[in-house]
Write a structure and sequence with these properties.
Heat Shock Protein 90, alpha+beta, 2 domains, 7 strands, 5-stranded mixed β-sheet, 14% strand, 10 helices, two-stranded antiparallel sheet
């Protein structure tokens, strides 16, 4: 079985799964060699005292060297994982009074245990990646279906035709923006992109929507605290802005404003998108269904890319519909 690339050891979900996996292996080993239930609790405490320090030190070291894994081949990455586990196990044993110069007392069993735990982690994350493969493929198909609606293309072209004689330069610029936008949307989106690239795409999209809707659409960008090198799933924000226009501004009789805020909060990036929340009626039920589909799609892609560290919340408050995304700040290499 070809191993998968080592996971992102800065990810909270990866760390929790590793802790559970190693402790499960330790428990199985304890039960296999336990000969008396009377001493089981004492043996478990003794094993925890030997396993947990080495495990926590290994996770800390892997967290610190995590940026190296993106540059290493797959097998070299897992060799580095085994080396970190082995080094931390030896360090933990040395802290208990083991003299390194005493070759006969070297903790060979503990070293083998560290290598076994590394191999188990490699197998687990490889199986997990293969199990998630169909889900990732399905998420990509959903991303395709969540892209710009066909009516936007036709309406944008009609808007360009409408200003071609009055303002040919603006019409030419709009066609260039439309071309750039669809070039990005039609490419294969398998890797994370930078937040700066995603926001540039969103600005192009909103300029085209403003051309179509005119003064009815107002856009406020609050991106002074935005880390442009943060990595995000491709097309994470554009479908949300499309929903904000389609569900929030278009149904209004008058003008509407979409507000986009991007800030950094500690080790996380927070994105908030606000748009008017029109009164609900029977005609808006289809709109609501489409909005939920897009939100579910983005929520699933965030989970696939960031695991437990990303969060998406949406709801109405004070006449506004707000979508709030929080995800870990990971700078592009």
């Amino acid at each position: 079985m070809r191993p998968a690339r080592a996971p992102d050891w800065r990810n909270l979900g990866v760390m929790l799964r590793t802790v559970l996996l190693v402790n499960a292996l330790a428990l199985l080993a304890l039960l296999a060699r336990n000969r008396s239930w009377d001493t089981l609790l004492l043996d478990a405490m003794e094993m925890a005292a030997r396993v947990e320090p080495a495990l926590l030190m290994s996770l800390l070291l892997l967290y610190l060297v995590a940026p190296l894994f993106a540059r290493l081949p797959v097998r070299a990455g897992w060799a580095l994982v085994a080396l970190c586990a082995l080094a931390c196990t030896m360090a933990a044993e040395a802290m208990t009074g083991w003299a390194i110069a005493d070759v006969k007392a070297w903790p060979v069993r503990e070293a083998l245990w560290a290598l076994l735990a590394s191999a188990a982690a490699m197998i687990y994350f490889t199986v997990q990646e293969r199990a998630l493969g169909p889900a990732i493929a399905q998420a990509r198909l959903m991303a395709l279906s969540a892209r710009i609606r066909p009516h936007f293309l036709f309406n944008s072209l009609n808007a360009v035709l409408g200003i071609m004689r009055v303002d040919p330069r603006r019409a030419e610029r709009a066609l260039e923006e439309l071309s750039d936008l669809f070039r990005v949307l039609m490419r294969e989106n398998r890797e994370l992109v930078t937040l700066g690239e995603e926001l540039a795409l969103c600005r192009q999209y909103m300029e085209l929507e403003k051309l179509r809707l005119g003064d009815r659409l107002g856009v406020v960008w609050q991106t002074d605290g935005c880390p442009p090198d943060a990595r995000v799933p491709p097309l994470m924000l554009q479908p949300l802005l499309e929903n904000a226009v389609y569900h929030g501004v278009e149904p209004l009789a008058g003008n509407g404003e979409v507000r986009v805020s991007v800030t950094r909060s500690g080790t996380d990036v927070v994105v908030e998108i606000d748009n008017p929340a029109p009164p609900r009626d029977g005609q808006l039920s289809a709109h609501g269904s489409g909005n939920r589909m897009a939100l579910d799609n983005i929520r699933e892609r965030l989970m696939l890319f960031f695991d437990l560290e990303a969060q998406l919340d949406a709801g109405e408050q004070d006449g506004l519909y707000r979508v709030r995304i929080r995800f870990p700040y990971r700078a592009a290499m």
